[in-house]
Design brief:
Distance between the termini: 35 Å
Strand content: 5-15%
Helix content: 55-70%
Radius of gyration: 21 Å
Shape: elongated
Structural class: alpha/beta
Order of helices and strands: EHEHEHEHEHEEHEHHHHHH
Number of strands: 8
Largest sheet: 8 strands, mixed
C-alpha cells in the first residue's frame, strides 16, 4: 500500500491519520483527506501535513486504499457519491458501526475489495483495539497492509464478521464503561478524603496497570484478582461488596444490551 485516502476528518479519522504518519507507515504526502467541513481539513493539514480536498471522488482516485471514517447514518450516501470513482483494485475500509460487508458490497459492487473494521476511541492515544473482517476479494497481502494501519496506533486482529457485534460490545463501546468505573473509583476516593484531580490519576493509572498485567502476564483475570486478595484483608471485603451489589452482572447485562442495540440498528 503506497497511498491512503481518508474520508472523514473527525476524531477517529485524525487518529488513523496520526497513526500511519507518526509510525512511518506512510509519508504525509501519500495521504489525502476528504471532508466537506473545511475547518476540519485545515486542522488535519496543520497537524500532519497531508493533502486535503472537499471532493471525495478526487481523494478516492488518488489512493490505493480508501478508509471511510464517517457516521453509519450517512455511509450509504457517501458510498453512492464515490461508487463510480472506485477502482476494482482499490481496498475499501470502513469503520462505520453496524455497516456490514454485505451492505458495502451492495453499495459499491460485489467485486470490490472490502474490509469492515471496528476500532475504538483509545486509538486517539495510540492504544486502540480494532477488529477486521475482509470479504473474499481481499488477498492476504492486502489484509496485512490494512492490519498495519490499525496496528500503527494500537492492536488489531482479524475476526469472522459473525463476531463483529460482540466486538462492538467488548471493545468498541467499552471505553465508556471503563470511564464510568474510573469515575466511580475517583468519587469513592474523594468521599474518603482525596483531592479530585489526584483521585482521577490514582484510579486511571490503576486501571491502566491492571489491564497491562492481563495482557503481559497471560494470567487469567481471576488469578490476578486472587493475587491481590489476602485472607481476611481489605481487598476481599471490597470484592465481596462489589459482588453483592451486582457489578459483574451489571457489566454483562450492559454489554449484552449494547450488542442488542447494534443488531437492531443493523436491521433498520
Amino acid at each position: 500500500m503506497k497511498s491512503l485516502a481518508v474520508i472523514g476528518a473527525g476524531n477517529m479519522g485524525r487518529a488513523i491519520i496520526g497513526g500511519v504518519i507518526n509510525s512511518g507507515l506512510l509519508k504525509a504526502e501519500n495521504v489525502i483527506v476528504s471532508d466537506p467541513y473545511e475547518p476540519s481539513l485545515a486542522r488535519v493539514k496543520e497537524e500532519y501535513g497531508t493533502k486535503t480536498t472537499t471532493d471525495s471522488c478526487e481523494a478516492v482516485k488518488a489512493a490505493d486504499a480508501v478508509l471511510f471514517a464517517v457516521k453509519p447514518n450517512i455511509i450509504g450516501k457517501v458510498f453512492a457519491g464515490i461508487r463510480d470513482a472506485v477502482d476494482d483494485n482499490t481496498i475499501i475500509i470502513s469503520i462505520a458501526a453496524a455497516t456490514s460487508v454485505e451492505f458495502m458490497e451492495a453499495s459499491l459492487g460485489a467485486d470490490k475489495k472490502i474490509v469492515r473494521v471496528m476500532p475504538n476511541t483509545p486509538a486517539l492515544v495510540g492504544e486502540g483495539m480494532a477488529a477486521l473482517s475482509p470479504n473474499r476479494n481481499v488477498t492476504e497481502e492486502e489484509l496485512n497492509d490494512v492490519l498495519g494501519i490499525f496496528n500503527s496506533f494500537g492492536k488489531a486482529e482479524v475476526v469472522p464478521e459473525s463476531l463483529m457485534d460482540a466486538v462492538v460490545g467488548v471493545s468498541g463501546s467499552s471505553p465508556a464503561y471503563v470511564f464510568m468505573f474510573i469515575e466511580a473509583m475517583a468519587d469513592a476516593a474523594v468521599l474518603t478524603g482525596m483531592p479530585r484531580a489526584q483521585a482521577y490519576k490514582f484510579a486511571a493509572q490503576s486501571v491502566y496497570g491492571a489491564a497491562k498485567m492481563v495482557l503481559e502476564t497471560g494470567k487469567h483475570p481471576g488469578e490476578l484478582k486472587d493475587m491481590v486478595c489476602s485472607p481476611g484483608g481489605t481487598t476481599i471485603v471490597a470484592v465481596e461488596t462489589l459482588e453483592a451489589c451486582g457489578l459483574r452482572n451489571a457489566v454483562i447485562q450492559g454489554q449484552v444490551a449494547c450488542v442488542e442495540k447494534l443488531i437492531d440498528m443493523a436491521n433498520k
